[in-house]
C-alpha cells in the first residue's frame, strides 16, 4: 500500500494537487469550474464522469457555502470515490473447483503488458500458496512463449508451450488446462496473442481459444490488459476485445508512468467492467489489487 501510494502519487498527484489548488481559490467562479473540468479531462477521466463530478461539487459547494479547505478536500475525495465506484465487486476468481483449476485468460494488445501481468499475477498466487500453471497461447512469436517461460521460471511455476512456431493457440491453451487438471493445481493462467493488425483473425482466434478451453469447464476470468498511458486508444481497444470475449475484469498497467490515472474511471464506465488489478512497474511485485480508497487517497496525497 505504501508503494502504491508512492508510485501513484509520484505521477498522479499533479491531478489531485491541481484540483485542490483550484478549489481553494478565492472565488469559485465559472472559469474556475471550467478549469476543474479541464483538469479532469486531461487526466482521462472521460466526459460523462467529469461532468458528474463537477456538477456534484458545484452543487455541494453552493449548498454548504463553505470554503473550508479540509471540507473541500473531503468533498473532492468523496466525489472521486463515487466516480471510481466503491460498491463494485472486484474479487478475482482464483479458487479451484472440485475437479479442475480456476482458469484465467489474459487478453490485450501486444505491448500493453500482458505477459508481464501474467508473470506478476502468478507471483501473487504463489505467495498465497496456490499451485499455478501458465499457458503460452501466443504461439505466433516464439519470443512470446520464451518470455512467458522466463517469467514462469522466475516465479517457480511450469509453463505449457508448443515446441513449434505457429502452433494452434487453442490447442496449447487446452493442453495447459489439461495439465492443470492432471496436476491438480489451483489456477491456470493463459497468455494470449494480441496482434491487432489482423483484427478479424485475432478476434476469431481469441473466441476459439476460449471455446476450446471451455471444453474443460467455464473460464473463470477473462482479464483485459490495457496500458493506462494510451488514453482513448486504449478505450477503443477495450471495446473491440469486449465484443469477442466476455471480459470480467480490467488490468490497467503502467499507472506508475502516467498522470492519466483518471482512465480508471473512463474505462470502467465505457465497458461496465471493473478494474481489478493495476500494474505499477516492471518488477515481479508491481501488481496490486485495485483499491478505490487507496487510489483516490494516492491521487490526493
Ligand atoms: P505484452 O506484449 O502485452 O505481453 O507486453 P509485455 O508484458 O511484454 O510488456 C511490454 C513492456 O511494458 C515491457 O517492457 C514491460 O516491462 C512493460 N510493463 C508491463 N507492465 C508495466 C507496468 O505496470 N509499469 C511499467 N512501467 N511498465 C510495464
From TrEMBL:
It catalyses: GTP + H2O = GDP + phosphate + H(+). Its main location: membrane. It is found in: Cell membrane; Cytoplasm. GTP binds at residues 108-115, 191-195, 253-256. It is a peripheral membrane protein. GO terms for molecular function: GTP binding; GTPase activity; signal recognition particle binding. It comes from the Bacteria. Part of the signal recognition particle protein translocation system, which is composed of SRP and FtsY. Involved in targeting and insertion of nascent membrane proteins into the cytoplasmic membrane. Acts as a receptor for the complex formed by the signal recognition particle (SRP) and the ribosome-nascent chain (RNC). This is Signal recognition particle receptor FtsY. It comes from Kineococcus radiotolerans (strain ATCC BAA-149 / DSM 14245 / SRS30216). The lineage of its organism: Bacteria, Bacillati, Actinomycetota, Actinomycetes, Kineosporiales. The gene is ftsY. The chain holds residues 91 to 391 of 391 of the full protein.
